[in-house]
Amino acid sequence: MAECGHYDRWREDFAISLALGCKHLRYGPPYYRTHLGPGRYDWSFTDEVLPTMREMGITPILDLCHFGVPDWVGDFQNAEWPFYFAEYARAFSERYPWIRLLTPVNEMYITAEFSGYYGWWNEQLASHKGFVGALKNVTRASLEAMLAILEVRPDALFIHAESSEHTHANHPDLTPEAEMFNERRFLTLDLICGRRISAGMYAYLRENGMAEAEYARFRSIDLVEHFILGHDYYITNEHLLVAPEIRRAAGEVFGYAPVALAYHERYRLPIMHTETNLVDQGGDEAAKWLWKTWANIQMLRRMGVPICGMTWYSVTDQIDWDVALREMNGTVNALGLYDLNRNIRSVGEAYRRLITQWADTPVLPHGPFSIVGGLGD
């Protein structure tokens, strides 16, 4: 957000979001500079930004934690962090009680995988044990935060934005491992939904560091009446398993609707499309991807799936998205609805037309949401 100029131009960023017709905005305040220590907070940025957002008529969907923690926490292997985070979530809701829509921890699965399994972020571990260590803490943090928020705002709704994925096997011998990945992708949502997981996944969690009491805690709490399950789907979300534990981007093999259906059939909860983009290469590739995504959403809607929103990430271009923010190269990635000078891109024009044309047809009939944009941290 600093590199992309948002801290200096946030009023402008809100204004250009409204210019598209977006009145709901996924937004992640800077957790790392707000939560200063146990019970210590600096609300100076959010005290200025969030009331202004409200005055402008934008309804935020607030990310409380987006891929990283403050330096004093360390990383996602810290088993004490979920309880500090719950205190933060409670303090946040007490300070901004008018905010009803929240994402406690954005993309829990990706957070755990990139930090504990791929070795890319935060603790930079590359093992199943590292993955499970991060996974159990991000899901526990989400659970405890929701319980804390509900004590302040009993009608809160939690939009759990999560990566929606599928792994394809490149060889018959790799099919069992591909199926392992296709079962593992559900773990974060299974845990926060209190769902009984398979014997294989239970053994996987136990072998890699989750205690029986930790699993029992998830099974003992049912908050799903407050849930909307978000799907983030990019052209890289389908994987090809080419060798043991080696996956590569498969491209759009099934597409968003079939992948989303696998999640919906598992949980039978309202869903929301919470992220997508495609780099604008000077043609109309991004606009075509937008319409393809919208067509998939319309297909799901006609099938009776309760889908209540669509999101393009993000309002502006990003920097170093192409290397998953692992390096500071200063590379501008043209995937926003606007460029970094806040000039609208062709996909932004297409998004605005889509909103105008479909304004009288909400994605979820009689539901609270329509098409939204996103600003993450």
What summary fits the major beta sheet? 8 strands, parallel
At CATH level 3, the topology is TIM Barrel
CATH level-four homologous superfamily name? Glycosidases
- What is the element string, with H for helices and E for strands? HEHEEHEHEHHEEHHHHEEEHEHEEEHE
Strand order, largest beta sheet: 11-8-6-5-4-1-15-12
Q: How many E-type strands?
A: 15
* Content of β-strand: 15-25%
How far the N terminus sits from the C terminus, by CA atoms, comes to 5 Å
CATH architecture call = Alpha-Beta Barrel
The share of residues in helices is: 40-55%
Please identify the top-level CATH class.
Alpha Beta
Total separate domains: 1
Categorize the overall geometry: globular
What count of helical segments does DSSP give? 13
Give the tags.
377 residues, alpha/beta, TIM Barrel, 8-stranded parallel sheet, 13 helices, 18% strand
Q: What does this 3D model show about the protein?
A:
With 377 residues, the protein is α/β, with parallel strands linked by helices. The longest helix is centred in the middle third of the chain and has 25 residues, at 128-152. The chain has a single domain (6-316, 343-375), classed as TIM Barrel. It contains 13 helices and 15 strands.
Describe what is shown at a glance.
With 377 residues, the protein is of the alpha/beta class. Helices cover 41% and strands 18% of the residues. The strands form 4 sheets. Strands 11-8-6-5-4-1-15-12 form an 8-stranded parallel β-sheet. A 3-stranded mixed β-sheet has the order 7-9-10, with helices on one face.
